[in-house]
Amino acid sequence: MAVRVVTHRTLVFFPHADSSVRALFCTKAVSPIRDPTLPQPRKNTPFTGVSMSRPGGLRLRRLIDGLEYDFDHQSGDAKESVYIRSDKAVKVIYDQDFGWSVWGEDDPDVTGERALLGRVWDVLVKDQGGSPTEGVWVSRKGEKAYVYVLEYLE
């Protein structure tokens, strides 16, 4: 279930040692609520209606501004599949530790290492199927994080 955490902000007054009264805003999470504007995750049903014998492309669509990145199937089947982004050397692959995830060629902070750029958000690695999981993905680029939806192209 996609949820949004509702926060509650309260102005709290408390006495101070010098007999004055101080005020402080307190923010706390009240409860998670179902948010119908967020895509709902699918349970163990990645690639519904997509034939594994004919892998196609996929698209990551950023929710905040609608920016889309298309990935083409380059090689492999099932968890050996490699999807390459059409405009850059970025791949969607299956990693034993992270599951289906987006990787860059190298991390400028760690020479010679590939960089984890994004991953499926709400499906555990053990529950991920033989194809990248449709639904909510998250990414990090420097200090910024984004929410995407993975969709398959016809």
Features:
eight-stranded antiparallel barrel, 154 residues, 2 domains, mainly beta, 10 strands
What does this structure look like?
With 154 residues, the protein is mainly beta. The chain has 2 domains: 3-34, no CATH class; 58-152, no CATH class. It is 0% helix and 51% strand. The chain contains no helices and 10 strands. Strands 3-4-5-6-7-8-9-10 form an 8-stranded antiparallel beta barrel. Strands 1-2 form a two-stranded antiparallel ribbon. β1 (3-15) and β2 (21-34) form a beta hairpin. The chain is elongated, with a radius of gyration of 21 Å. It starts with a strand and ends with a strand. Residues 43-54 have low confidence and may be disordered.
Q: Main sheet, how many strands, which sense, barrel?
A: 8 strands, antiparallel, barrel
- Using only CA atoms, what is the Rg? 21 Å
List low-confidence stretches.
43-54
In total, the number of domains comes to: 2
Share of helix, binned: under 10%
Shape annotation: elongated
Describe the secondary structure blueprint for this structure.
Elements: E1 3-15, E2 21-34, E3 58-62, E4 68-75, E5 82-85, E6 90-95, E7 99-104, E8 115-120, E9 135-141, E10 144-152
Antiparallel strand pairs: 1-2, 3-4, 3-10, 4-5, 5-6, 6-7, 7-8, 8-9, 9-10
Quick synopsis:
With about 150 residues, this protein is mostly beta strands. The chain contains no helices and ten strands.
